[in-house]
Amino acid sequence: MNRIAQLQVPVENRVEEAGIALDRDRFTRKMIRELSGTIERVVGVEEASGYVATVGGLMGNWLNEAYHAELGPDDFDLDTVARIFVDLKRRIDGGFHVVSIEPDRIVLGNTRCPFSEDVIGRPSLCMMTSNVFGRIAADNLGYARVQLERTIAAGDGRCDVVVHLTPIDMLDSDEREYYRL
């Protein structure tokens, strides 16, 4: 139908056919973007990251329990933890992949954030990845220190994440520690 013909049809008859890119996923991502942006502006990025970290820890616990419910109660080994990271991100439309697995670290890359383009300029949302990965790794392997070397949120175009498995004395500013609960 051309534009003139559309205007002749009463608006109430065109609502359902409107070409608005809106579904539950898009609505939720936009809501999370606006919520995180509001919190970042009101309390600052560092404090906002703390709020997101709290939610990320809860999500990490929930996901760890879900994988254990399906795969068994024993602690997951290093390879399985890495596979879980990639799998859980795949399930929520992330583009994570394992770069390397060493006895003291798991290195991951990512080309697609589950928050899509809505993550750009919202660094506090990266605490979701840090806390989910940190919680799962620590609860299965005893300890984790997550380092977000590059992030899509910061405009890097990709994420480089290192999950270190041995503690150190001094943390870098882009690292967070997690211990088995």
Which terms summarize this structure?
alpha+beta, 5 helices, 181 residues, Muramoyl-pentapeptide Carboxypeptidase, domain 2, 46% helix
Give an account of the 3D structure.
The protein is 46% helix and 18% strand. It has 181 residues and is α+β, with helices and mostly antiparallel strands. The chain has one domain (24-179): Trafficking protein particle complex subunit 3 (Muramoyl-pentapeptide Carboxypeptidase, domain 2, 2-Layer Sandwich). It has a 5-stranded antiparallel sheet with strand order 1-2-4-3-5, covered by helices on one side. A hairpin with a 2-residue loop joins β1 (96-102) and β2. α2 crosses α3 (45-71) and α3 (45-71) crosses α5 (126-141).
How is the secondary structure organized here?
Blueprint: H1 3-8, H2 24-43, H3 45-71, H4 78-91, E1 96-102, E2 105-110, H5 126-141, E3 143-150, E4 159-164, E5 175-179
Antiparallel strand pairs: 1-2, 2-4, 3-4, 3-5
Helix pairs in contact: 2-3, 3-5
